Amino acid sequence: MSIEKSKAVVNYAETKGSVEIRELEVPVIGETDILLEVSNVGVCGSDLHQWTSDHSWPVNYPVVLGHEFGGIIADVGSLVQGWKVGDRVVSETAAVIDPLNPMSKIGLYNLDPTRKGFGYGVNGAMTRYVRVPARCLHHVPENVPFEQACLTEPSCVAYSAVVANSHVKPGDRVLVIGPGTIGILCALMAKLNGAEVAILGLEADRGRLKIAEQYGCTGLVGNATEWARSWDGMGADLIVDAAGHSNTLQIAMEAVRPNGQITKVGWGKQPCNFSLDPIVQKNVRLQGSFSHNWPMWEKVIAMMAAGILDVRPIIGGVWPLESWQEAFEKMHHGEVVKSVLKPF
Fold first, then answer.
1. I need a surface site. Which of 41, 43, 92, 277 has the fewest CB within 10 A?
2. CATH of domain 5-151+311-342
3. Which CATH class is domain 156-288?
4. 214-250: per-residue pLDDT in tens?
């Protein structure tokens, strides 16, 4: 390969703001890896949390950020089968797993406790070239541009939360808390399942709520209880907590109907200084949802290719890698829902 080094967005320490552009060697791949030339990489809320140092997961510093990515295969390891140079692909996030772990053996490698993901456990994709295990790859059809394909990962997070880990029927009332990328995609997944959907945000979120309204959702600011109880006075069938704060669980407990469900997909490291008794009193199912696995990726890509899942309204712009900070700040301040970077 003629290129020996490439620029990368590196989170180099736990201190707030410890992110910068560095020049790194092109990674050397193993016999079961491929070398991916990154076409586009999405900025995730977790990238922002590492930038602002308010995350709640361990990070292997220094590390290249970015786990929402797709591109073209530039090289293949000697034992790789089924893939070739030039293939259009996206990659899952489980960069390191233990194939002998009980969770991995049943296909739930996303729940392997030893799992390490791109962008915090190993070097991610905010660079031109990234080493990817071939088992992580999925084909991207020609009719799906990479700036949309790189949103496969957050779409799979939403698919996992709403379709796999929740029970949504046509006509259900679903309230999503938090109009970020994951929240809006969760709302969209609920709409695709025939639910009546509202999404709750803050006053500063009105711009992002308008994006959700393009998908036929009701945007709410302030108190969501009135909407949740407006049908029969009992509350929403499902609350999806996609906010990054622990106290939103209290909002969810108030708005959910008896015998309903709360699915928590948003991270919040703050302690919950309130009682969980409403979950008991209402006979509510509290469900966590983390990551995704192979069949979910295949479903989401098929939905994108068929035009069922349209992520274009969520994309607020595409920035060159050198402008990473502007892209981060646009998301951090709520000016856009999703920023996308283009490494070259």
1. 277
2. 3.90.180.10
3. alpha beta
4. 999 999 999 999 999 999 999 999 999 999 889 999 9
